Amino acid sequence: MKRSGTSPRLAWALTGSGHFFTECLELIREVGDCDLFVTKAAAEVIRMYRKQFENLPRDVRLIKDTTASAAPVGSFYHGLYHTLVVAPATSNTVAKCVFGISDTLATNVYAQAGKCRIPSIVFACDTAPEMETEAPSGMVKVYPRRIDLENVERLKTFEATTVVESYEVLRQALLERLACVKNSP
Question: Residue 52 and residue 40: Cα distance in Å, rounded?
C-alpha cells in the first residue's frame, strides 16, 4: 500500500562497478527524484568519482548499506517505488540476482522489487566476450567469463526484469518507463 500523499519514486541501486559509472550518475542527475541505494562496494567506487557524485540533485535521497538485514528494503512493501534500476550491475550482482542470493543492498532491493512486482531495469556490465571499460587509470580491456555471459542471459528470462547491455539502451529504457509511469492513472 502506498503512503498517502506521496507519489511512487524511482529506486536506483549502485554496485561496485566503474563501468559507465559517471554516465549513470549523469542519468540520475537528469531524472532526479529518486532514492539511491549505495552498496558498500559502490561507496568505495564513489570515492574515485567524488566530484560527479557531489553534484546530485537535492531530490535524490541516499540510502547507504549500513545494516546487516538491509532494513531499507522494507520501503518496497509500501508502494514507495514504481521502478528499480540496478546500474551499473557487476557480474557478482548479476550472478547473485540469478541465483536468489540477497546479501547486499543491491541484491536485496532487486529481490524485494521482484517480490512486490515492481519492474526492474538492470544494466549488466559483462555482456560481451571482449570489452573496453573505463578504470580510474583509463580505458582497459576485459574478457568476461562464460559464466558471466550466461548469467546475463539467465537474468533476461526473469519476470518484470529488463536487462540492458549498453548505456544508450539503459537511458532509452528508463525514459520509456518514466513516461509510462507518468501517463498511468
Answer: 18
Cβ–Cβ < 8 Å for 158, 114? yes
C-alpha cell at 98: 540469478
Contacts of 7 (CB under 8 A, 6+ apart): none
Q: Per-residue confidence of the chain (185 residues) as pLDDT tens digits?
A: 344 456 899 999 999 877 788 889 889 989 988 999 988 887 877 776 655 556 777 788 888 876 666 667 888 999 999 999 999 999 999 999 999 999 999 999 999 999 999 999 999 998 888 888 777 777 889 899 999 999 999 999 999 999 999 999 999 999 999 999 998 87
Nearest in space to 81 (alpha carbons), one of 49, 107, 52, 113: 113
**Nearest-angstrom CA–CA distance, 114 and 32:** 23
Domains of the chain, CATH where assigned: 9-183 (3.40.50.1950)
The size of the chain, in residues, is 185
Distances (CA, A) of 34 to 65, 73, 78, 144: 16, 14, 16, 31
Task: Please state, in angstroms and rounded to a whole number, the distance separating the CA atoms of residues 74 and 41.
Answer: 21
Which residues in 78-100 are b (16+ Cβ under 10 Å) and which e?
eebbbbbbbbbbbbbbbbbbbee
